[in-house]
Amino acid sequence: MQALTSPSLEQAKTLITQGEAVLAQAVWPALEETSYLTTARVLEAMRLNRLGEEHFACVTGYGHNDLGREALDNIFAHALQAEAALVRPHIVSGTHALAVALRACLHPGDTMLCLTGAPYDTLEEVIGLRGNDSQSLKAYGINYRQTSCFENVPEGQKIRLSWSEEETGWLKEAKLLYLQRSRGYSLRPALMITDLEALIAAAKAVNPGLIVLVDNCYGEFMEPNEPTAIGADLIAGSLIKNPGGGLALTGGYVAGRANLVEQAASVLTCPGVGSHGGYMAEMTRTLLQGLFLAPSVVKEALKGMTLAAWLMENQGYMVSPRFDEPRSDIIQALQLGSAQTITEFCRIVQAYSPVSSYVTPIPAEVPGYESPIIMAGGTFVDGSSIELSADAPLREPYTLFLQGGLTYAHTRLVLTQLIASLQKEA
Ligand SMILES: *Cc1c(COP(=O)(O)O)cnc(C)c1O
After folding, report:
1. H-type helices in 143-192, by residue range?
2. What is the 200 CA–ligand 1 centroid distance (Å)?
3. Among 101, 104, 54, 51, which residue's Cα sits nearest to residue 76?
4. Which pLDDT belongs to residue 2?
5. Does pLDDT of 426 surpass 80?
6. What are the pLDDT digits (tens) for 242-272?
7. What is the whole-number distance in angstroms between the Cα of residue 107 and the centre of ligand 1?
8. DSSP class of residue 6?
9. pLDDT for 43-93, tens place per residue?
10. Whose CA is nearest to atom 6 of ligand 1?
11. What single string gives the DSSP state of each residue in 385-412?
């Protein structure tokens, strides 16, 4: 039996109590407030759509006239402040949702412009920046341009709203503007909703016909408003992140302007079927219950991430965002400085996970990445990153990305063990 107390564990507990006192004053009330607003919207969506027991049964086969599927789409649409939504277990991941949204909007000869620098890794093959898949956007004759709206300033990075002559030309010729809200696995900050609003307005001032697609992965319910409320035409995301509330077993969504969402449905299924077919695999109830929990789960995850930021900064590490900085995604970057600290961090996250706690994470080569990656996350749903999980490429500056946490208590427990381990070494 492991000792329940040790000097390092006692020290860690004291430190955590100190951190919690700061956070409960300065940071957590705003998180609670946001979750009240977003919960109210989710509940309103269920009430307005008269959600009832009858919606939980699924129509097999073609899945025609599945009332539950329709209610699910309409409820998500309202919760995400969109005209329409397509919410399906047949959408494999966030990448798939984004790919469906892109294909729905772009035809041969069209140009996609990304204003947020390099997109999330998995989008490279979708766009055709890497590999030579015959189904990439590039292979379909769709052009791609990229520039970055982030500007380095002494305080960090800020958003730039003026464009060079060349960039203005790109904006004018583009059919679709692509913006990634989350930092992804990079050190730039997440785009706040106010930043997104200003960027979209500036871009549409140059080209009013632009279709704006926001990669909303990790962003849902982070702020009172979603991108669809402030000018985005379309958003897409994964259900094994924020909006699935930890209950969704799979799936993704596309939401936004009704005509674009229906075009996305035609890409996902086929013309003629669109959003009107598809067996929901008895998942409608779970997806709705997950949505109901999502605002609270996001808040719990954020309480954990802000504690991680406070503690690690207290221990002398560089963290981004800092504990009291505004957030628009659930990711916490921690600069741990060495492969050894990263490995120890991941060992503890895994050892105190509910599933596969007996596994020891080791760095491995992952296709498409130049350095070995180490990942920890003993999750109930494989790959779910709304559950507590950590990933890090083993290279300078040895940054670990921590995210999720279905309950604050779990993240707190993991961090207690982690700080105790760091104290022991010190
Ligand atoms: C997770 C994520 C994606 C999509 O990833 P999947 O693993 O395919 O769900 C895309 N963009 C961002 C910013 C993400 O965080």
Report:
1. 165-173
2. 21
3. 51
4. 57
5. no
6. 999 999 999 999 999 999 999 999 999 999 9
7. 23
8. -
9. 999 999 999 999 999 999 999 999 999 999 999 999 999 999 999 999 999
10. 94
11. SSSSEEEEESSTT-EEEEE--SSHHHHH
Alpha-carbon distance 14 to 32, whole Å? 24
Residue with tokens 């954990």: 304
Over residues 156-166, the pLDDT tens digits come to 788 999 999 99
| Cα(419)–Cα(258) distance, integer angstroms | 49
Instruction: Tell me how far CA of residue 82 lies from CA of 193, 236, 261, 321, in angstroms.
Output: 15, 11, 10, 29
Centre of ligand 1 to C-alpha 34, Å, is 23
- SS3 of residue 122 by DSSP: coil
Q: Is 238 in the pocket of ligand 1 (CB under 6 A)?
A: yes
Q: Is the CB of 147 within 6 Å of ligand 1?
A: no
Dihedral angle sign, alpha carbons of residues 406, 410, 415, 417: negative
Confidence at residue 4, expressed as pLDDT on a 0 to 100 scale? 63
Q: What tokens appear for 400 in the block? A: 């670990």
pTM: 0.97
Q: Residue 134, by phi and psi: left (phi above 0), alpha (psi -120 to 50) or beta?
A: alpha
From the number of C-beta atoms within 10 Å of its C-beta (0-12, 13-18, 19+), residue 366 rates as middle
Tokens of 141: 């004759």
- Cα(136)–Cα(241) distance, integer angstroms: 25
Q: Which residues are CB-contacts of 234 (< 8 A; sequence separation ≥ 6)?
A: 101, 104, 105, 211, 212, 213, 214, 228, 254, 255, 256, 257, 260, 261, 264
